[in-house]
Design a protein that fits this description.
Length: 704
Amino acid sequence: MTLTSMTGANAQSNSETAPGVPGPEEDPYIWLEEARSETALEWVEKENERTLAALESDPRFEQLKAEALAIYDSEDRIPYVSFRPDGLYNFWQDKENPKGLVRRTTLESYRSDEPEWETVLDIDALAAAEGREWVYKGSTCLPPALNKCMIALSDGGEDATVMREFDTSTKTFVEGGFVLNEKSQGGISWIDENTLLVNRDFGDGTLTESEYPFTSRVWKRGTPISQAEEIFRGEPSDVWAGASLLRDASGTIQARTAFRGVSFHESVYYVWKDGEWLELDIPKKASPYGIVDGHLLFSTDVEWETQGQRFPADSLIAVDLEEWKADPNGAARTLVWAPGERQTKRGGSVTAQALYVGLLDNVVGKVLKFNYADGAWISEEVDLPDNATVGIAASSNETDQVMFTVTDFLNPTTLYYSDGDSAPEIIKTSPYYFDKAGMEVEQHEASSADGTKIPYFIVKPAGMKLDRATPTLLTGYGGFQIPRLPGYLGTTGKLWLERGGAYVLANLRGGGEFGPGWHQSAIRENKQRTWDDFLAVAEDLVERGFTSPDHLGIQGGSQGGLLVGTAFTQRPDLFGAAIVQIPLFDMLRYHLIGRGASWIGEYGDPRIPEQRAWIEGYSPYQMIAEEEDYPAPFLWASTADDRTHPAHARKGAAKLKAQGHDYYYFEDMTGGHSGGVDNEQRAKLEALQHVYLMQRLMDDRSGG
């Protein structure tokens, strides 16, 4: 979910122009929307002290933290890599390198049990030398050599970054090279060694209402960014907009393109043709997918009727690249792949000669390999294990090398490698972090309020008595067409399952488990369906005897934090614990907080009365009521989160406190939207949450 920080003053000003959106008179906690104001941080410090006193003093805390840290710092976990001409690159964090190392090795060495790594960039050393809390946010490199890179760095974990030119050959930042020292959302593309295409915040009038860039410039080496030529401009009302480059596997630029994100889920695309931007005649829920075998592929999330043909939603459609360059809207369109029942695409990757597409088939993973031969598209299923979650881990543009991951709830990830011709072979296996003996996985369905069958997985002790006494943790997401899939439970297995708990993953509408339709059926005016699905799974767990409300906890982050917030405010009687992570929570002001305005396509616009009516019926912040008995929720956030913003969790805790409800609140001062920036902090967060769950769901609370 691509969910930054608007000041309280700005928020107040904007709210006054929209009747029905709460302002300071209706909302006494708007001051908590100032992420780093002195008064807000004083409030945070007091809340942290209170929560830490209650949870860190638990005799189980230190052991839980040590167990989690041992997993995060494990030296034998898989070091995932990307292919580059000068080696296999990996970003690695451990107890000796908490901020991380960018390093590389050879394929031959990588295949060994103990690869020899060469450090390219030490983030800890850089942060220490500059006195900054640098967090590495990746790099964008010039093809085909990929040795000239723009390194993205975040101070403290924000999504906004600064960027600096780095030479991987010399392993140094380029003296006098490209530097973008003003933090911003957006990125760059390399046109050539001396030219960048830049999509960034260029000052007044260059950010959308969602605070994303909507202009693009061509920046020549040796000139100030202020003199860079603007080549594309979207609209301030867009979610985001920008220009980009369409490259083939060799790195050759085939076209200059641009897009305007007119909503979170809809974009208008353009191609530079004959000295102007030509709008592409494709649906707003379709987009370019990549170049394979001399063809440009498009993906569509809606049914596409064109040229006398009808392509189903979630299809892949191809056009001959040269024909498309000559006539972008007239080139003949051909079906490459269409989903079967309960199938959907899940990511793709292009090698020098082929396209690999991940596939979900009734929530089971597969990978298909596509080629164009003898005038037709052909596909074959890659030989990987069945009944598992399968992903494409890495691929090479220079060769046909590709890597795949295979995992499930109880078995750690296995990494497979293929040169493109041979069958995939195992080259790395993650260690087991918990004892899976005596554990089993089942899949069930619950009936939602409208009768739709909602699948869910439960991981539990084999032969577990259906006496409603098992402490159970239920989680889900249900938004933005993002699927939640079986994956090795790692710390949850060690800290929760080994201690007798059960774990449940719900596949809710609004997510992406069954394709675009599964998502689009539960957005905007129908968003309540997501919350209904989650409640239905919770009720089903109780009805089957797996657990009871006193032993049932729920957990989710970001959109999942909104999910948990709606669940415990709509059905407080159904849960004994609720962990609300980095959430959306105040949905009547969400468009004014952080990047909220970008998600109007998912939830609706509270400034419009009809749409506000959808939202205020479930907005957790507004739904908190003094007369209800809530399950002492644990809300946590990050001060550096410039996506959902800590104001949501802060305001929720403040209102719970004012009404006399029991609650917990913790705010990580660094880490951004993903939590702790280093393994020590991540382990602390894990331990705090599991102590809370044990106190609420495992301990006997009948006396208090």
